[in-house]
Amino acid sequence: MDFVKDLTGKTSDFCRWMSCASLASALWLASGYAKDVSGSSDHPALSRIAGSTIVVYEPKDQAEIRIPLERVVFDLQTQKFNAFKTISPSGRLIRILYALPAGSTPQAAAGYYENALRQANGEVLFSGAQDQLDNGNDRFVIQTYYGNLQERIYNLLLLNRENAYLAGKLNWNGRDLYVRVYTFANREGHGTNLVKKDRVGALVDIVEVGPAHPPTALVTSEQMASEINRTGRIALYGLYFDTNRTEIKSESKPTLEQIADLLKREPSLKLLVVGHTDNVGDFEPNRDLSQRRAESVANALVTGFGIPPDRLVPFGVSYAAPVSSNATAEGRSQNRRVELVRY
User: Fold this and answer.
1) Which of the four CATH numbers 3.40.30.10, 3.30.1330.60, 3.30.565.10, 3.30.390.60 does domain 221-342 have?
2) Per-residue pLDDT reduced to its tens digit, 291-334
């Protein structure tokens, strides 16, 4: 099992992750959390480093963040960024900026969160530090955070090359959580009271994937038939996938049952199963994603409910047919859908 760092930044050979719980609790209680900003708290899935203070706390009911999954490189010859993998989960966002205790280092802090993620049976999607993140000039910070942080926080991240980053995923109370942690030493001494000069900060973003509000009511086979007879199509939002994944989730079963009932009651009905995405990311990768999701729905109906495959044609259209503006998280959630179209 990995060792953890004590508050001096040195490795303690008696202090492992699980055996440190009582020590960490004592330090946590002794570290003066009256200084936390009003109304703030740790996310219950991921506790803070002992001795840290919450200096910024921003909960949002619905938001979307970009999570890089590999190094960011700017090609000086083409004057363009090389393509790099990202995911863009959306849902309830908790953003916390911690000021870490004296003696902390960015890499030790990132190691703490990586240990915490693994202890929660989570998955590390990408991690790195300094030149492992980009080829200079704040390119990682710009591509990750520009436009979606308070200016005072964003400016604090710039010009500090002593940094580390962790992206991960875990399941918490039956819900997928995506975690993005950026740790940095404020060597530049930017004019801010958030993290003092030569101290370390940890910016932690946690996204609870899913809509801000409960799913809409189940669409019955009778309602599907009525809408298809009226307009030739129906949009469904009860078919669920994880971000950037194509495996249909178990929560989709009630809607699949209603589609199967519709097809069994109307044996001459043939359907296009049309996958739609929002406009986050490039068109062609989204077209591939929407195609494979449509195929997953069709396959689930064939293998799980005995629907003849020649009655279903899966087809992905990427973000070619939005029903709402992609400028807002709410609009993007409406555009992520599966439509059944009579043919």
Assistant:
1) 3.30.1330.60
2) 999 999 999 999 999 999 999 999 999 999 999 988 776 788 88
